[in-house]
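Sequence and structure are no longer studied apart. As an example, we show below a sequence and the tokens encoding its fold:
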Amino acid sequence: MNKNELNKLISLLAQQGLLLTSGRKAVISVLAQAKKPLSAAEIMESALIKKEKINRATVYRSLSFLESKGVLELLRLSGDERLYHLNLEHHHHLVCTLCHKIEVIHFCNQLNTQEDEIKKSTGFTVKKHVLEFYGLCRECSQN
């Protein structure tokens, strides 16, 4: 994401009524420029490299706030590893349990059909779903 797109995203979030402190903007900026989901430690390290003044507590508070507002999405990997990325469009993930490569996949049309079937058969209205597939990527499964 380039600087212009980042500024548009921050403006859009502010228009939606989100209070964007300098710490929250720094977290968004780091994640917007990341090529993969990042841990809190990686976000802090990247912010320091970019000369952003942000401390550990601010990073964790910002991550919690932005996740609660749907701006960020949390991926839980093996153990306690948590990775964050911007949630700009609904998608799902393929997570390699060996090399930890994460790939984005889109197939919500099929899931929407499933949600309709769930409502018909149970009366349950799905408001949100989260789906990750864990296994071996192409490279790891060939080794």
User: Anything to note?
Assistant: The longest strand covers residues 72-76.
